[in-house]
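Fresh eyes needed here. I'd like your take on this protein's tokenised backbone:
***
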Amino acid sequence: PILPKNIGFGFQMQRSTIGIQEKLDAIIKYSYKIQFDKIAIGFGLQGSARRFLNDFTDQRLLAIDGFEMDPSIERIKYSKTIMNIGLGSVIRSDNFYIGISIPRILRSNLDYETEGILTREVRHAYMMIGTEFDFAPDWKFKPQLLYKYAEHSPNDIDLWTEFVYRKQLFLAANLRMGGNPDTLMESADLVVGFSLNDRWFTSLSIDFTFTELRNYENGSFELMIKYTLAEKN
């Protein structure tokens, strides 16, 4: 947040690689908050630039019969940059919130080739609702429901439950449902977090997969360390 405190700016950069594929995201965000007596309404706007790269010159690529046997694979680098915009809004009180967002509104062309359009990204919409309340001395319970919709895709639901002790110890679990018509539960996550002070926070999470993907991967293990520059409101 900046002065006045109802205006905020944010910047996010993320790079991910899988094999010869690389994706670089750069996102700038703006928010505006309207404060009433016990309720605040926030509005958000973001602009994003994403760069996709497929490097078929990577020396790790091997072809038993040689690449010349497959005319569809050229030993070159394919890259493309896509721009987009997103919108969102949230209504929040002291112990309740509900929000909705569409991070990318434009249906951008994802093809590397310029002749013809075969692949477009579709819109994704998210709706969240959550609350928190005291259930024991020094303990808070914070459940949250996240609904995810994408065009031409199955719906997804995340059910998050979190227990907080004195705003220092965080114990949470997440259940993911939908997306696979053959399995009710897609995955489960366990999270442990600890707040050292108002600025430093660290957490550890483990993911367990229940779908057929478990035959090919062991889930994920993630460690996060966060530092907050501004004082918490």
In short: The mean pLDDT is 89. The radius of gyration is 22 Å. Residues 125 and 192 are 28 Å apart (CA to CA). DSSP finds no helices and 13 strands in the chain.
